[in-house]
Amino acid sequence: MYGFLCKAVTLLAGLSVLHLASGDSLDFSADSSAQAAIKQELGRQLSGQAAIYFPTESQYTNLAERWSAYTQGNITIVVEPETTQDVAVTVKLANDYHLPFLAFNGGHGTSSFLNTFQHGVSINLRNFNQVQISKDSESALIGGGANTQEVINGLGVHGKVTATTNGGCTGQVGPGLGGGFGRYMGYFGLILDNIIDMTVVLANGQVKHVSSTSNADLYWGMKGAGMNFGIVTAANFRIYDYPTSHWVYAEFTYNDTEHQLDAHFEAINKINANGSQPKELGEVYTVMQVNPQYSKTDPVMVVQFNFAGTLEQAQPWLDIFIDLHPVAWWKKDSLLPTEIQAAAGQDLDSFICKPGTTWRLFPVGLKEYNITANRQVYNLFKAFMGEHPEFSSSVVQFENYALEGLRAVDPASTAYPHRGDDILVSMAPVYPPSKALDVIAADFANQLRAVWRAGDAPGRELTAYLNYANGDESTEAIYGYESWRLERLRGLKRKYDPQNRFRFYNPIIR
Length: 510
Hints:
Elements: H1 3-22, H2 32-43, E1 51-53, H3 58-64, E2 74-80, H4 84-96, E3 101-104, E4 118-124, E5 131-133, E6 139-143, H5 148-156, E7 160-161, H6 173-178, H7 185-188, E8 195-201, E9 207-211, H8 216-225, E10 231-238, E11 240-241, E12 247-254, H9 257-271, E13 283-289, E14 300-308, H10 311-322, E15 328-335, H11 340-343, E16 358-359, E17 362-366, H12 371-387, E18 395-401, H13 404-407, E19 423-428, E20 430-431, H14 435-454, H15 475-479, H16 483-496
């Protein structure tokens, strides 16, 4: 069956070597017969609605493009499967012909390891975007290609919700494999804490049902390190009645940072002392950014306030930020749970969902804010932005979530290692695609990281949230410093992926 395909792939391999030598990307336009051979042979084993695309075809660009221009890799073939069996067939054929493969949904990962994916098969999961509520309304089957907005809207019409990320265009399952932070974390924990079971395609193409009672060892590893073990085509999630029917969203801009910066972070430390931020105050998100409306040289601080409840309930918390005298602020109350994303500028039409620009993340987990360190971060960021106008859209992020739901879960019960962190900070360089700017961005981001770490609690090592990790961190920083945790993860790799086929997103085995 594979004889004809073998000839075609041999030819493609020859082209790969030729183009690798010249430094160019692959171009199949000169050999349409090779494309036809692969489409014919692979197509025989795929379901009728599945599709195969090459770089010469118009559909390829949209299906292969990732969110960040920094992590495009090099994709030889895009397969758009329709069924789990299509995914399994694609994985097996890729293995037969020594082609790397990578599953793809929203494509929001920014790890530098994605650039090691060269001349491979992209498995685009967007067809797997179902959101199907169970008969008892206690769970929902969510496809591996569903994005956050589809999940929120699909559950919302039934008055239901689950833990999700905040960004409408990010996936549900993908971020869930690495953690999954969001507004409902105080109520329901991480996305991964709500996964009941999964359908997983392993590195050898076998399909496994994974749950606490079926392949339980893998279930533990998938919840916190899942990118290392398999492709999830669907997962059942616990769902809940809305804890509140309305949200309050507010946004504050502070431009007198000489006086307001210290007071702001002192207030956040009080709100979030030892992870005590109330679950109703789902997130207080602060960014430093340049806004020419206020200054072309001095970054402002913008604070996004997310509260589950009525305006009357939110008012004491709003007053904390009003009393800091923002130069501008506004609010929307009585927002439906399905409206909060658009209010925050995080829906599918928002700027942050548009591909084509380089976005990168350099995270650090903290226990509390060191005010002196944050002041130093601001001053360094101000100087950097003045010297490098190419980075004008970059931001420094300070993420404070309610942690009650996260802390309710035994840290040993999943592979996720950072339940002791109270705060997530990161430098997020945003700039036009450029190899030279890549180096400048990383150097500066790691300079900020060093400042945060120096101001952190004594004796704490760097912790880097898997979904944000840049790829220059140690395995321990991403997956935990406990020896038992790493040994267990490495044992799972030996059992389920001994050839390390899943190695393109902050891998355990490097």
